[in-house]
Amino acid sequence: MQGSELAVALIGWGAIARRVAAVLAERKAPVRIVAVATRDAAADLAGLPEGCRHISSAEELTEGAGQRPGLVLEAAGRESVAPFGRAALAAGMDFAVSSTSAFVEGDLLDELLALAAGSGAQIFVPPGALGGIDALAAASRLGLDHVRHEIIKPPAAWQGTPAMAACDLDHLTSAHTFFTGTARQAAAAYPQNANVAVISAMAGLGLDRTEVALVADPAAAGNAHRLTASGAFGSMELMLTNKPLASNPKSSEMTALSLVRLIENRAGALVL
């Protein structure tokens, strides 16, 4: 490993993590993936980066001479956030969280923040499939009155979720809003599809004051997000339509690209 390379551990080796690794390699980023963690020791590891360790427990993060990660990035689902977050932050490693729905219940976020404060590490929450988080977070410093986040996806992207009981996904002829509630409620009920609602909530009014609407639209060209906010700063409206990730229609290409940006910002001399 060159001295200028950032050592990264990826938690998960599913569609998002594989795409992140592929894009980093294509862009020749100054990054080396030193470990990939999966809960299943016999998981499919096709395409694992050369020289990368495969681990299956959080305790193994700190093992391996010369391969200690500076950044641990979770892309494996909410069940992985607690164990790997605790291990990484206690050891002084920065921790990036994709499955932000893990923060909707209990005191996990407070626990991880305390560990980070104690070790000098940081917790990163990438914007995922959503744009405008920088503007929303900046506006929140002056005070927000209202934030609404609509998540609009083709019916196929909602298959295998509670949306199947809320509407007939196979026979929709127009856009149908099957859920309206808080960001906390949306992320708890739709952890794979509505992680990004936690991000907009954390940047703005919080989990219980951010309004979320989930929409199945047979005419949708991709996975779309409409974010509106108002407050002392003025008002904003953002509409972003993402192409679904080819290997997982429940997620977006932008989700993986957001993680690539975070890693490259940590590794590079210029942060954008």
From TrEMBL:
NAD(+) binds at A129, N195. Residues 173-260 form the Aspartate dehydrogenase domain. The active site is at H225. Its EC number is 1.4.1.21. Pfam families: Asp_DH_C, NAD_binding_3. Pathway: Cofactor biosynthesis; NAD(+) biosynthesis; iminoaspartate from L-aspartate (dehydrogenase route): step 1/1. It comes from the Bacteria. GO terms for molecular function: aspartate dehydrogenase [NAD(P)+] activity; NAD binding; NADP binding; oxidoreductase activity, acting on the CH-NH2 group of donors, NAD or NADP as acceptor. Keywords: NAD, NADP, Oxidoreductase, Pyridine nucleotide biosynthesis. GO terms for biological process: NAD+ biosynthetic process. The keyword Zinc does not apply. Coiled coil: none annotated. It catalyses: L-aspartate + NAD(+) + H2O = oxaloacetate + NH4(+) + NADH + H(+); L-aspartate + NADP(+) + H2O = oxaloacetate + NH4(+) + NADPH + H(+). Residues 12-126 form the Aspartate/homoserine dehydrogenase NAD-binding domain. Belongs to the L-aspartate dehydrogenase family. Specifically catalyzes the NAD or NADP-dependent dehydrogenation of L-aspartate to iminoaspartate. PANTHER family: ASPARTATE DEHYDROGENASE DOMAIN-CONTAINING PROTEIN, L-ASPARTATE DEHYDROGENASE-RELATED. HAMAP family: NadX. The iminoaspartate product is unstable in aqueous solution and can decompose to oxaloacetate and ammonia. This is L-aspartate dehydrogenase.
